[in-house]
Amino acid sequence: MTWNTPLTELFGVRYPIMQAGMGQVAGGRLAAAVTNAGGIGCIGASRMSPEQFDEEIALAQSLTDGPFGVDFLFPDIDDSAGPAPDAPYHAVDPKLRNTMLNIAYDRRVALIVYAMKLQPGRADEAHELGIKVMTLVGTARHAVRAQERGADAVIATGTEAGGHTGAVALSALVPAVRRAVDIPVVASGGIATGQGVASALALGAAGVWVGTRFMATREAQVHPAIHKEIMDRTEDQTVISRALSGKTCRLATNNFTAYWSDREIKPFPQQAIEMNKMNYVQRSLVEGDVLDCPLPMGQSTGLIHDILGAEEVVENLVREAEETVRSLIAVLGAPERVAP
Ligand SMILES: Cc1cc2nc3c(=O)[nH]c(=O)nc-3n(C[C@H](O)[C@H](O)[C@H](O)COP(=O)(O)O)c2cc1C
User: Fold this and answer.
1) Is the CB of 158 within 6 Å of ligand 1?
2) Which is the most buried residue in 38, 71, 102, 129, by most CB within 10 A?
3) pLDDT in tens, 142-157
C-alpha cells in the first residue's frame, strides 16, 4: 500500500517517513536503506570532512535511485567573524560550511535540511538546482520565518526529541505550526512506533522525522554499546542539557550530564567549540564511552528494545500505523462512513 500526504507528493515517495540526519550516526548506507524502503533517508553531515561527505553522498547514490537528503547544523552566527580556531567542523566554521554546501549542490541531493535556522537566500539557491529545503523548528514563530524564507516544509521538533530540541511538546507543537503555515509540517520527537506515526498524522502532520529509532539500526554508524544503551534505557533516562553546545540538547543521563548540571555553561558557539576539542561525540558514539561522554538520545529510547535493519523499521512503522488507524476506525464503530 502507498500512502498519500503532502510530503509523499513533494518527493514522490511511498511513505512519509523521514530518517533524521543525525551527525556521526547517519551515513549514506542508512540514508539509502530508508529511501529504498519507501521513505526518505538523510545523511547527517555535521561532523564529516568535505571528503567524507562527498563519499557518503556518492555511496547513497550508488545504492538508491530514490530521493534522500543531507542535514547541516549551520548555526545562526555572524559568518564575517571567520573560522573559529580549533573547531574543524561546519557548525562553527563558515568556510567549511560553503564547501559542504557546494558538494551538496554539485551532487544534486534531493533535499537539504538546515537543522538550526534557514538563512535568507538559501532556499532560492537550492530551488534553482531543483533541491528541496527544510528546517527544524521548535515554535510556530520559527515555522513562519522558515516559510517566509522559502522552506518547502518544516520539521516541527517536540521536546521529546533526541539531540538539539526545544521546550514544547509535540502534541502542542504540531497543531500550532499547522495553524501558522501553509507548507507541509513534518512531526519529530518521540516517534518510534507506528502508533506514534498515526498520532502525528492525526495531529495534522504530513509525515514524520525519526531519529533515535533509526540510531537503533544495523546501518547506523554507532558503537554496539550505544545500541545496548538505547535498548536498556527507560523513557525517563534522558535530560535536556546545554553542556554539549550551549544550546538545549536532549542527552542520555550519565556522568557527563550530572557533572554539568550545576556548572556554568558558555553560550553557543563557545561551549560547542570547547566540547569539540574534547572529541566527546567521537568518544561516545564511535568508541562507546556511554558513561562519561555526551550521548544524544530521545525519550523514545523507552520504546526501543531491538536493533533492526532500517528497512524493517520503515516496514514496522507503516504496518503498525495502518493497524492503529484500523483499530481506531473499529472504536468509532462506523467503518462504512470512512473513505477507503
Ligand atoms: C545521536 C543523534 C544525533 C543527532 N544529530 C543531529 C544533527 O546532526 N542534525 C540535526 O538536524 N539533528 C540531529 N539530531 C536530532 C534529530 O534530527 C531529530 O530531531 C531527533 O532525533 C528526533 O527525535 P527522536 O530521536 O525522538 O526521533 C540528532 C539526534 C540524535 C539522537
Assistant:
1) no
2) 71
3) 999 999 999 999 999 9
